[in-house]
Amino acid sequence: MMKVSELTSIVRSLDVISEGTFHSLGNLYHNKVGMLSYLDSEKYLHEFLENPNISALITKRELIPFITVDRPLGLIISDNPRFDFFLIHNNLARNGFYSTEFDTQIGSNTNVHPTAYIAKSNVKIGDNCNIGPHVSILEGTTIENNVIIGPGTSVGHEGPEYKRSGNKMLHVTHVGGVHIHDDVEIHANCCIAKGIFDDDTEIGESTKLGSLVCISHGVRIGKQCLIVSSVMIAGSTTIGDNVWIGPGSTISSRVKLGSNAYITIGSVVTKDVLPSQQVTGNFAIDHKKFLDFIRTIR
What we know:
The protein is mainly β. It folds into 2 domains: about 1-95, MurE/MurF, N-terminal domain (Udp-n-acetylmuramoylalanyl-d-glutamate--2,6- Diaminopimelate Ligase, Chain: A, domain 1, 3-Layer(aba) Sandwich), CATH 3.40.1390.10; about 105-295, 3 Solenoid (UDP N-Acetylglucosamine Acyltransferase, domain 1). The protein contains 3 helices and 35 strands. Strands 9-12-15-20-23-26-29-32-34-35 form a 10-stranded mixed β-sheet. An 8-stranded parallel β-sheet has the order 8-11-14-19-22-25-28-31, with no helix packed on it. The model has no long low-confidence stretch (mean pLDDT about 95).
């Protein structure tokens, strides 16, 4: 657990308004108890007010009048809350704030190809798995039983997350993991990034990924989904069970796809999709509405 006043040794320009403590970090929409977060726009004020888990906040001076909560709150003023928050995150990551360390564990009857790379620490692989040629499995990855990972796939790498401040561009350190459940099949040359904070990118039981699928940090995929080749899923997206995503589709960040949703070929999804809804197009809309529109222009 840390006090917010300790953060001034990391970013000296911070102004502590009220003391508080935290033992995790996350964005406003994360639900981790005792969390340090940031608020840099009134647009996202509702997310802060609706999240009782935030115990410390970095924000702008002009937003202080809107910060009204009936609980203890460590409060810090910054000219650039987002950038300073991730400076703090990177510093804490380097200095062991998030770290847990154990030797890599590989279960029985698991076949690892000689050309595959598996990190020597912080990896767990279960029984009866098949790890193909030139696969990379990096720290923070948990793979359960009966999982198949095809040639050239990377699991547990850092995604391309950057924050700007003037001419500076900060790469955000990823300290989370990847959790792959039982009976998942991942075909060739997929990329599955680890979580940014102490959270996991997750692929649910019996889900299948075609080749060249890219899954970004913090994505949660349910059970028995079929994600066909060349799909890109951006960060913090949540996908229910039995979802079908067609080849070449793109799913934007923080989108929710309900269970049994059907995303047709080449769709670009920027808004939530209801359970059992079928969507089509760029930008994706209800499939029947899309067909009605096509009829009007043919």
